[in-house]
């Protein structure tokens, strides 16, 4: 994408933040899965506890989303129209991977 040093730093920061969130959510998902399976094996399904897990995860997403969106908006604002088009193309190309950092700031982009 021919990013400037400042643009690359912004993008790397966003990717790092998303990666950290993804790792945290994976850990939470694994813990939730174990607790949910344990709950299913119990005599009574604790609906309140399951709802609490869901609400906690939603609360964390609600806290994180505005921050990452603001950072991405700042990055987006720094791009020229050609870079935005290339970014959209790269995101579309890599969307099947569920991770989009590959190819955006590495190599000959």
Task: Describe this structure as you would to a colleague.
The protein has 109 residues and is mainly alpha-helical. The chain has one domain. 76% of the residues lie in helices and 0% in strands. The chain is built from three helices and no strands. It has helices spanning 5-41, 47-78, 81-94. Helix 1 (5-41) runs antiparallel to helix 2. It is elongated. The model is unreliable at 105-109 (pLDDT under 50).
Structural topology:
Layout lengths: L4 H37 L5 H32 L2 H14 L15
Helix pairs in contact: 1-2
Helical amount: over 70%
Write down the overall mean pLDDT: 83
Task: Provide the succession of SSEs.
Answer: HHH
Query: What does the radius of gyration come to?
Result: 19 Å
What distance lies between the first and last C-alpha atoms, to the nearest angstrom? 4 Å
- Low-pLDDT segments: 105-109
The largest sheet, given as strand count, sense and whether it forms a barrel, is:
none
Structural class: mainly alpha
Tertiary shape: elongated
Percent in strands = under 5%
Total helical elements: 3
Descriptors:
mainly alpha, 0% strand, 109 residues
Compact summary:
With 109 residues, this protein is an all-alpha fold. The chain has helices at 5-41, 47-78, 81-94.
């Amino acid at each position: 994408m021919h990013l400037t040093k400042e643009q690359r730093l912004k993008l790397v920061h966003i990717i790092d933040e998303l990666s950290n969130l993804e790792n945290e959510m994976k850990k939470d998902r694994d813990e939730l899965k174990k607790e949910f399976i344990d709950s299913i094996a119990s005599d009574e399904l604790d609906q309140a506890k399951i709802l609490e897990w869901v609400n906690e995860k939603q609360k964390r997403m609600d806290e994180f989303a505005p921050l990452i969106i603001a950072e991405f908006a700042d990055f987006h604002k720094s791009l020229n129209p050609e870079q935005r088009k290339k970014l959209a193309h790269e995101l579309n190309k890599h969307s099947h991977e569920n991770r989009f950092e590959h190819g955006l700031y590495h190599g000959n982009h």
